[in-house]
Amino acid sequence: MPAGLAPPTVTRGGPMDRERRPPGDLERSVMDELQTAGRPLTPREVLARLEGDLAYTTVMTILFRLHAKGLLKRERTGRAFAYRPVADEPGLAVRRIHQILDEGPDREVVLSRFLGSLSKRDEQVLRRMLDDLDTRPARPRARPPEE
C-alpha cells in the first residue's frame, strides 16, 4: 500500500458479522418467554418479546424445532400457529431426565452414577421423598375391561 494512504474501510454489520449466541441460548430464551406468557403465543408475539435483532423466520424455525422435539404444543390461530410449552420448567426437566435414561446404554448404571454424584443435601431430600412414596396408600389398579 502506498505510503500515506489509509487501509480500505471494511463495512461490517451484515447478518454474518453479528455476535453468535451460544448453542441453545435462543431456544432457552423462546422457552422462557412462552413459560412466562401463560398462554399460547404466535411467532410474531414471541418475536416482539425477545431481545435483539431477530428475523421472524428465525423465530419460526426455533418454534418449529421445539415443536418437533416434543417440547411445544401448537394450535391454529387464524393463519398462524400459537405455541405453548407441554409442561412447566420442572416438568420439562423430568422429560429430559427420562429421555436421557431411555437413550442410555444401561439405565441402572446411569441411575447409580447419578445417585453417587448427589450432594448430601440432595441425597437427604431424595431419601425423604422416597420414604414419603413408601408411606402413601397404594392407588387402586385399573380393572381390566370386562369381556
SSE topology sketch:
Layout: H1 25-37, H2 43-49, H3 56-68, E1 72-77, E2 80-85, H4 89-103, H5 107-116, H6 120-135
Antiparallel strand pairs: 1-2
Written overview of the protein:
- The chain is mainly alpha-helical and 147 residues long.
- Helix content is 50%, strand content 8%.
- It is built from 6 helices and 2 strands, in the order H-H-H-E-E-H-H-H.
- Strands 1-2 form a two-stranded antiparallel ribbon.
- Helix 2 crosses helix 3.
Name some characteristics of this structure:
mainly alpha; two-stranded antiparallel ribbon; 147 residues; disordered N terminus; 6 helices
The largest pleated sheet is described as: 2 strands, antiparallel
Q: How many extended strands?
A: 2
Mean pLDDT: 84
Specify Rg, calculated over alpha carbons.
Answer: 24 Å
Beginning-to-end CA distance, first to last residue: 93 Å
* Beta-strand proportion: 5-15%
Overall form:
elongated
Describe this structure in a few short sentences.
By secondary structure, the protein is mainly alpha-helical. It has helices at residues 25-37, 43-49, 56-68, 89-103, 107-116, 120-135; strands spanning 72-77, 80-85.
